[in-house]
């Protein structure tokens, strides 16, 4: 186990969802995720489609540890993405001196909002990480203006410990101990 490690399982199932690796059939959904002005409202704005296409061409469907496509369990339709990686030391917003904490982030297609899907996916990934990894702090950073995300952060059980400026916006830093997500 190294300081940069994250959850190693590549697939998880919940009541309604399949968390799996990205596949070629997710391409249009991923393009929508990066180009939709509503989804990107608190993430620096929509990216131009050609730029997103180039990025996807470059990344392909190689599995990145801690990176999950959220899919409908029945239909396998791509609903969004969820990431449990490490918060780089050289960006603001940390709860430990060394930084590099486990960091949760998520984005759903607009049509998947308001159904509890992000909560279900995040809770499953955090529970699996708690079963697999040593206890440690997990952080989540979200714009304070992002009301849906702020509600999700609280509902998952993160405590907002402070706010700070990044990307010309006020960000909330939420934290929880990984083991608080154990079943
Ligand atoms: C942040 C984001 C994932 C939140 O999505 P969300 O659907 O509001 O989040 P949740 O999964 O917690 O769902 C909660 C909503 O589902 C509703 N809901 C419906 N059925 C539900 C169920 N079975 N269980 C739980 N909630 C349910 C809740 O009432 C709540 O709706 P409300 O807020 O209108 O009252 C979404 O807005 C998004 O993708 N935003 C763009 C990306 C982004 O900004 N990411 C943040 C960077 S980390």
TrEMBL record:
- Superkingdom of source: Bacteria
Sequence ranges assigned to domain N-acetyltransferase in this UniProt record: 17-183
Keyword Transferase listed: yes
- GO MF terms on file? acyltransferase activity, transferring groups other than amino-acyl groups
* Keyword terms: Transferase
Official protein name in the record: Acetyltransferase
């Amino acid at each position: 186990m190294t300081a940069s490690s994250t959850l190693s399982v590549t697939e998880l199932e919940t009541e309604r969802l399949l968390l799996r690796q990205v596949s070629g059939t997710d391409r249009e959904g991923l393009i929508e995720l990066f180009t939709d002005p509503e989804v990107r409202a608190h993430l620096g704005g929509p990216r131009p489609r050609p730029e997103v296409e180039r990025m996807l061409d470059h990344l392909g469907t190689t599995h990145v540890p801690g990176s999950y496509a959220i899919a409908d369990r029945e239909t396998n339709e791509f609903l969004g993405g969820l990431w449990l990686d490490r918060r780089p030391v050289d960006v603001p917003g940390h709860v430990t001196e060394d930084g590099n904490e486990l960091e949760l982030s998520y984005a759903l297609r607009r049509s998947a909002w308001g159904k509890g899907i992000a909560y279900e996916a995040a809770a499953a990934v955090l529970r699996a990480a708690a079963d697999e990894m040593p206890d440690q702090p997990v952080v989540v950073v979200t714009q304070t203006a992002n009301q849906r995300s702020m509600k999700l952060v609280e509902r998952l059980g993160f405590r907002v410990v402070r706010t700070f400026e990044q990307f010309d916006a006020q960000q909330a830093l939420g934290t929880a101990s990984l083991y608080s997500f154990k079943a």
